[in-house]
Amino acid sequence: MMKPLKWLARTTVFLLVLLAGPALIAACSSQPGQSWRDADRSSAGIAPLPGETEEAIVQVYGARAYSWRGNFAVHTWIATKERGASTYEVHDVTGWGNQKVRSRAGEPDTAWYGNPPMLLADIRGTKAEAAITNIRTAIDVYPFPNEYKAWPGPNSNTFVSWVIRQVPELDVALPNIAIGKDYLPDGVFAKTPSGSGYQFSLNGYFGLMASIREGVELNILGLNLGVDPLTLAVKLPGIGRLGLRDPWMDRSTLQQVPAVEQVAEAN
């Protein structure tokens, strides 16, 4: 009887170290934040200028969340530009205001209150045109338009994850530190956001994911740890992904590879 109990205790301690250790390291290494009024919201120069690019564009971005939340999680959003349009439209969810879902004209690649953005997906041309139509439809039927809860959801990452699932053109793998992405509106089982696997989740508190794009992730109290064999990476709470290959896109298809690489390295 003692051996199973010892095994359970050791396993529990091991999981707690994996979950809490990296998160504490991230928290201890962070710098004190400044007021949101003074925080950087400038463009990172990743997205093509709309006046110089005729084709339709869809991009997905992520950046460390504002203030102490950035020690553990990222904020994600979607930017779209129709063919021939002179501006981008940015779609995301925030915790302030009665209407949580926002779709507004603006620069797609701004810093998120002092934290630089990272490009997670870049779609161009006719595929982007189809995606924009489907993105608008998905936003209109998002099940939590007036709800926001930073943990475990629904939040900004729940919104982006929902839209990605509804849009066939968006086979995007969100970072494991996108807390809220595993909050499933339609039940406990669903396809992963990339559509290349499946996941089980109990309201975002506990769950398991397995897919080709995302790899394997274990969710405990909203903190995800896992492995991604295809990109030779491990995923740690708070720290994020540590690997040798880019899990989100083929950079050879991007027009601004140096800018994307610099932003990714800055994160």
What does this structure look like?
The structure is a single chain. This protein is α+β, with helices and mostly antiparallel strands. It has one domain (50-262). Helix content is 24%, strand content 25%. The protein has helices at 2-29, 125-140, 156-166, 257-266, and strands at residues 57-64, 74-81, 89-93, 101-105, 118-124, 189-191, 197-202, 206-211, 215-220, 223-228, 233-236, 240-243. It has a seven-stranded antiparallel β-sheet with strand order 6-7-8-9-10-11-12. Strands 4-3-2-1-5 form a five-stranded antiparallel β-sheet. Strand 3 and strand 4 (101-105) form a beta hairpin. The model is unreliable at 250-267 (pLDDT under 50).
Across the major sheet, the strand order is: 6-7-8-9-10-11-12
Structural class: alpha+beta
> Considering DSSP H and I runs of 4 or more, what fraction of the residues is helical?
10-25%
Mean pLDDT: 86
DSSP summary: helix tally: 4
Rounded to the nearest angstrom, the radius of gyration is 18 Å
Low-confidence parts: 250-267
User: What is the rounded distance between the termini?
Assistant: 47 Å
User: In percent, how much strand structure appears in the residues?
Assistant: 25-35%
Shape: globular
The major pleated sheet works out as: 7 strands, antiparallel
- According to DSSP, the number of beta strands is 12
* Quaternary structure annotation: single chain
How many separate structural domains?
A: 1
Order of helices and strands: HEEEEEHHEEEEEEEH
